[in-house]
Each structure stands twice: as C-alpha cells, then as structure tokens.
Amino acid sequence: MSESLPVIAPAERSAVRSARAEPSARRLPVRNPVTGRVDYEVPALDRAAVATEAERLRRAQPRWAALGASGRAEVLLAFAAVIERRQEAIAAALSVDTGRTLLSRREVEGAARNIRRWARLAPQLLGTGPHGEFRPSAILPDVSYAGQLVPYPLAGFISPWNFPVTLSLIDAVPALAAGSAALVKPSEITPRFVDPLRAALAEVPQLAEVLAFVTGDAETGIALVDEVDLVCFTGSVPTGRLVARQAAGRLIPAFLELGGKDPAIVLAGADVERATDAVLRGSVLNAGQVCLSIERIYVDQRIHDAFVERLVEKAQAVRLSCAPEGGEVGPIIHAPQVDVIRRHLADAVERGARIRCGGAFVENGGTWLAPTVVTHVNHGMALMREETFGPILPVMPFADEDEAVFLANDTDFGLSAAVLAESPEAALPLALRVNAGGISLNDCGLTIQTYEPEKTSFGCSGLGGSRMGPASIFRFVRRKALIAQRGRPQPLADYRDPPAETIGSRGRAADAA
Ligand code: NAD
User: 292 C-alpha to center of ligand 1: Å?
Assistant: First the structure.
C-alpha cells in the first residue's frame, strides 16, 4: 500500500521544517496527522553514517560499563531530570508527530519515570561489584563459583510510530543501565521529537557518548541491524520477520515486540457499566493505535444485548479531537492505516456485519474515526483476524466458557487479553486458559500501566525475553561463570582408558554370548 502524500508547492517549501542538518543524507517527507500536509522532513541516515555512529558508541562503551551499575544510575538520573525540565519542548514536538496532546505529555513523563525506575532497580538486580559472590559447588567439594554479567557492547533499538518516545526508550534504558551502549532508530513517520530529545541528551555528555538516535526508514534500520550486537525491534509482524532473519544471519539476539489482536472476554457476572468503560477505553485510547488495543470483544450471550446497547451509548458520547471543544480520539497518525481500517470494515459489512455506531471517517486535513461498534461478526472476517489498529469494537456473543476460550485463542497473535467478570477471582480461571502474554483481570490494558510483571508474547506477537519486570535488564547481559579450584586439578591420568582394541573384543565377546 502506498501512502499518498500531498505535494509541496515551491512556495510552501519554506514552511517545511527540517530536522538537524545531515548534509549528505536522503531526506524523508513527514506528514502532519492533524493537517494532513507535509510540513517537516527528516534525514535518512545511510549505511556509512550509521556505521560512524555505531563506532563512536562502541569506543565509549567500555568506560560506560566500567562505571558500574550505581555510577550509570547516577548519569541516567541526570538524564531523567533534564527530560523533566525540557518536557514541554519534547511533548510539543511529539504532539505534532502524533496529533494528540495529553498522551504525548504522558509519554514524556513516563519516559522520565522509566529512567528513574531503572536507575533504582539496576544496582539491586545487577549488583554493584564487578562480579557476584563465590559460592561452594554442591558437586565438586573444592570448587566454588561466581557469575559476571557482561553487557552486549552495542544494542540496537528500532521503534514504531504509535508511541514514539515511549517505545524508543522502553528497552534502551534498561540496556544502558546494564552497561550497553544504545543506538536507537525511531520511526520515520513520527520523528519530530528526536531533536528536542537530542537537545536533552546533549546536557548529559557522559550519556551522549553511549546513546544516539539515528533517523531514517527501512534502509537505516537494516544498516543498524548490521552494526549492533543485539537488536530490540518493536513494530509490525512482517518487518519483525525481516529483522529476525537478518539477526539470525548475523547470529545476534533479536527481541521482537510485534502486533496483536487482543481479545476481551466479558462473562455473564460482569458489571456491564464497568465492563463497557474498560472495553471502550481499551479499544479506543490513542484512536486504537496501540499494540495491545482490545480488537475483539466476546460477550456471554446472556448479557450481550445489554452490553452492546450500553457500549454504543458510551461510544456515541466520545468526541473527536478535531471538534472545537477537543475530544478523546485523535487522528489516525499514519495515513496508510486508514486504508487498512476501511478494508476491514468493508470486508466485515460485505460478510454480514452491522455497524452500530461510528464507521464514517471524518476528513479534516487529517483523518479521524469515531469509535465504531460492530456486531454480527465472525472469524471469517479480516476484522476478527488481522490487526486493525483503529477505534473499532467488534462484539461477538459466546454460549459458554469453552467457546469463549476457543474464540480468544483462535488467532495468530498472543500479545495480551482481558477477562471481565464480577471480580478478578471470577475472571482468573478463564485468564489461565487464554494464550497471551499479559491478561488484565476486570480491566483492559493493565500491562502498559504497570510495567512490573514479566511477560512474553505468544504466537506472532513477538519473540524473546520479557521487556517488562526485572527480567528485562537481563536481556542485555551475557552470563560468564567464574569457577575456582582450591583443590588439586584433576590429572589427565584419571582419564586413562584400557587399550582401544579391548572395546571391539568386548563387543565380539558379547555377540558370541
Ligand atoms: P513497522 O514494522 O512498519 O516499522 C517499525 C520500524 O521498523 C520503523 O522504525 C521502520 O522504519 C523500521 N523498519 C522498516 N523496515 C525495516 C527493516 N527491513 N529493517 C529494520 N527496520 C525496519 O511498524 P509500524 O507501522 O511503525 O508500527 C505499528 C506496528 O507496531 C503494529 O503492528 C503494532 O502492533 C506494533 N507495535 C507493537 C508493540 C509491542 O510492544 N508489541 C508496541 C507498539 C507497536
């Protein structure tokens, strides 16, 4: 699918703002999701430029690692403070990138919080010395052993456009806390925040030696994967496969955080008022452009009609941010996504689905879509199988819990899910049977609000260790065993074999017997 970008007339050229000059780089046009016009451009760093940045970071990384977990934490805390001080500028650029204000501010606040959290946790998790304590072996009496955690020198991060700041830093921060250098390539769709973030980074020179942002598109991403010792990729399944193949060719670890088609199961005992609140927010926040948006809603047939009626009422009360008084739903950030949403809706309607509210796109420079509740859906529809990434709420009844679990698990994805019942305890038995990395009990989307529990993605939603919880930081270290012998090293003579010919003769003797 090709994105149709408005052509920039020569007279308007001066209105196109430019990111920091990179003299020889290709320049990519950047569309404003609110006006629909191209008003910015960003350099796409080529292979040579990426290699130069990678080399610079590599040279500084040993000094960074040598600071120890506590020393690095101090530097990271300084970065958090600068981000907080420069929050307005970063959030303002991010708002233009994404067409929404409040979530942009929250992203920047959250980034600083994430840095503070890792600065606190890393020394506890990694220890503050160069290695762990020696412990006696239970197998060899004179032997003791300790562990050393050795960071991957240079880790690479590739991020998408839906939460540009959060997802550019979510993995890079624990990597830095672990002692790696971090090379980050944000999405070319939403790159305006990079310059103000770089300005913040420049105030912390020690960190600027080991953290860099390279702008660009697929070509820059491919070059990055060729330079790093480990890659964390957040984005779509098709690109994730390409990154995984490239990483496999280089034998470097690839941690993939990919798409989803998250289900919510609403049991008969659920409070309809609470459940509709949770599902509406879980589906519609950020105009549904969230990897763990609720994109399939299964409701016990006994409460299905009441649930749909209330959901429609609430969906109709939601306002679009292009209204004069503002609203909860912003524009579709990436223009080609409009076509995906259109295709899913058209296919569903053609196959018998009914649109209960919403469904009409509002073109006001950018493109908006009101929350769209759809019923009479089934798993033959793209709307129930492929990631839609829009504010769409398809609702389907189920007869019993086995059917609900079957439907929830009938997917290629497995990012997260939600089960709503009269209480979290009542939701738990079903949650245990749903195949996904994080299940919210009696709410939706709790994993992005807590960050604490470890989770891995199921199915095509991802690959590799947990990005959440303490395990996250251990993705960036290799474990070295230090094994000490205090007794006599075993002499080779202990391994003396009888003559080799006796092996065959024993065999012959056994055959004869
Ligand atoms: P995308 O796959 O198109 O692009 C993601 C990034 O990869 C961009 O920076 C892009 O420039 C880069 N890229 C493109 N081709 C590349 C290549 N061959 N090699 C290396 N890098 C390459 O994804 P998108 O449209 O930006 O993001 C939306 C997708 O991201 C959705 O599927 C969404 O579910 C997913 N996502 C997942 C999570 C998660 O945590 N699981 C979070 C947010 C978004």
Answer: 14
